[in-house]
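TA notes. Do not distribute before section.
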Amino acid sequence: MSTLILQFLLLAAIVAAAGTALARAADAIADATGLGRLLVGSVLLAAATSLPELTVDVAAVRAGHADLAAGDLFGSSLMNLLILAGIDLCRRNGRKMLSREAASHALSATLAIAVTGLAGGAILTAGKLPAVTFCGIGGWSWAILVAYLLGARMLFIDQRISARLAAEEMPERRGMIWKPAAVFLAAAGVLVAAGPRLAATAAELADRSGLGGTFIGTTLVAVTTSLPELVASLAAVRLGAVDLAIGNTFGSNAFNMILFVPLDAAFPGSLFEAVSPAHAVTAFAVIVATAIAVLGQLYHAERRLPVVEPDALLMILVIGGAFALVFRLSS
C-alpha cells in the first residue's frame, strides 16, 4: 500500500510541474497572439489542464470504473472552485478574484453552469427516458457538446473587441509565439503521458480502501487531476495574470463536462445509466458554488470584510458539504 501511495504522489508531482509550465506558456501565448488572457485561460489553458481528466477517465471507463470517471469530472470541478475561493481568501491586495473587476468572466462561468446542469440532468433521467444515440454517443452527451460549442462561440465574440485592440502589438511580438507554444505542447504531452498511470493507481487505491469508486473519484482522483489547475492558477496569480487564473477555473469546469462525450463513446452501453445517482449531488453543488462566484463578481460592493470574504467562504462551505454528502451516500 505504501508503494502505491508513493507512486501516486510521484505522478501527482509530475502533473503539478507540467501545470506550472502550462501557465507560464499560456501567459506568453496570450501576449504574443493578442487574444487576451481571458480567452486563452478559458479555452486553451482550460483544455490543456483538463487533459489529465480525459486520459484518466477514458482509461477508467475502459477498465469498468465508470463511477470513478464520473466522480473525477464532477469532483474536479468542485476542486477547481475550491482553488478559486481559496486564492480569493488569501489575496489581500490587487485585483480580486470574486469582485466586479472580474465580472467579464461571468459569461464563461454561466457556460460552466449550463453544461454541468445538462450532465446532472442526464444522471437523474438515466434509464427513465427513451435512449437516443447517434454514432455510439447518447443524446445527453451531444447536448452537452453543442451547448459548449455555442457558449465558446459567444465567449469568442465577446472577447473579439479586446483582441482587436491587442492586435496592434502583434507584428513586433509574433516571433515570440514559437517558444511558448513549444513549451505548452511539451507540458500538455507530459499530462497525457502521466494520466493513464494515474488512473490505474487511483483505481487500485479505490479497491484497497473499500470506499468505492464514487467517493474516491470525487475526492482522491479529483484532487490529483486538479493539480494542473491549482498550480497553473497559482503561477498565473504570481505573474499578475488574474484573468488567466479565473478563466482557467471556469473554462476547465465547462471543458470537464464535454469530456463525457469521449467517455460515452468509449463505454459499452449508456454511461449515465452506469454511474451512481450520487454524482448528481456533486453536479448541483458545482452549479450552486459557481452561481455564488458569479454573484460575487456582479455585486457592486467592493469593500472587503476585515476577516473573510463571504462569497468565497460560502463557496467553501457548499463544496465541503457536497463532499460530506457524497461520502454519506457512497458509504
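Switch to the second chain here.
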Amino acid sequence: MEEIKNILLSLIEKNENEYIEYKEAKNNFDFNELGKYFSALSNGANLQGKQYAWLVFGVSDKTHEFVNTNYRKGANLNSLKTEVAAHTNENVTFLDIYELEIEGNRVIMFKIPAAVGVPTTWKNIAYDRIDEQLKPLNEIKRNTILSTINIDWSRQIIEELTVDDLDKEAIEKAREQFKSKNENKEIAKEIDKMDDIAFLNQQCCGSPRL
C-alpha cells in the first residue's frame, strides 16, 4: 500500500486533466455520474497516450487537500467492478480500487483502463472531459481512439507502474526459467535470495544489484 500512497502523492501534484479527476465525495457520489467519469477518463487516457486514468475520492479538486470520503464506507468496494461492467461496452471496468488512509483521511483511488480500439461507453454513450464538464465524445476523438486498435501496449512505457501491479505467478515462472537456463552459473544460486525488484532489474540490466 505504500507504493499506492506514493502514487497518490505524485498525482496530487498535478492538476486535473483528461486522465486525472479529484472528487471530495464526502458522503456519497451519484452512480451514474461515476460511470460517466469512468467513460470520459478511459477515453481521455487513450487520447493522451496513457495506459490508465485515475479517479480519486477524498481530495479537493481546488486545493488538492485530503478531505476524507465516506463513500460506501464499510461496503465491499470491489462490487463496484461488477456494477460498472454491467453498463459499459465489452464489460470493461476498474483495473483496481484502492482504499487507504493518509493524514487521517480516507481516500479511494479508482484505476481506470485506457480505451483501446473503441471508445469506452457508459450506457451506450462515449464521454469526454472538456473544461471540467462531461460531454459526448466528438467524431474526431472517436476516430483517433479507433485508430489505436493495433497498438501493442506491451511495448509502451507505463508511468507509475509498481512491482505490485505485476503478476506474481509470471514473476515466479520467470525465476524458474532463469535458473534452468543458467543452472551451471553462479547467478542461478542467487536468484532465490533476490526480491522481485532486484530480480527484474537483473533481467533488464544484467546485474543482480539495484
